[in-house]
Amino acid sequence: MFKAGQIRKFLLLSLSFGVLMGLIFPIYASLFTEYKSEDHRIQFIISCCIAGIAVGLMAYFIAHMTLIKSIKMLYTYFNKISNGYLDGQISIEGDDEISKLTKDFNMMTDFLNLIISSIKDESLKVGTNSEFTKNRIENLNCDIEYITEAIQSLTSSTEETSAATTEMENS
Description:
Blueprint: H1 6-29, H2 38-82, H3 97-170
Helix pairs in contact: 1-2, 2-3
């Protein structure tokens, strides 16, 4: 029924506080009243303990409706972020620690979105630059082939000229 941890501790503390108040109040009340009998005193103590437990439970449920509900909302969004969902913003009004935590959480998600956007932009630049570099290398390879063919052509021409020169000298 109850989750282990801080919520359960808070419930137990609320109930303990209620019981404590139920036990202390009859002592305080005895300073101002007299009981008709011992049975009335015991009934009053039991009634005070029951009222104290009720007050403790009410304190727990009021805290659950306000504080714990906000913490659970934060917990839900933390889980979403851990699964990659970064589009949500939490809105908890106030100037207490929970609302400050919420504002910091929203700033964190904005910052993560900014980082991711920056990484996407940079990866697009890298992709564009790598495509440009690839095209330049292909052009250089074509130029090298053309130069190689030109050198081979010059080498052939030089060999032919050399052979013709040698023939002329021998004739």
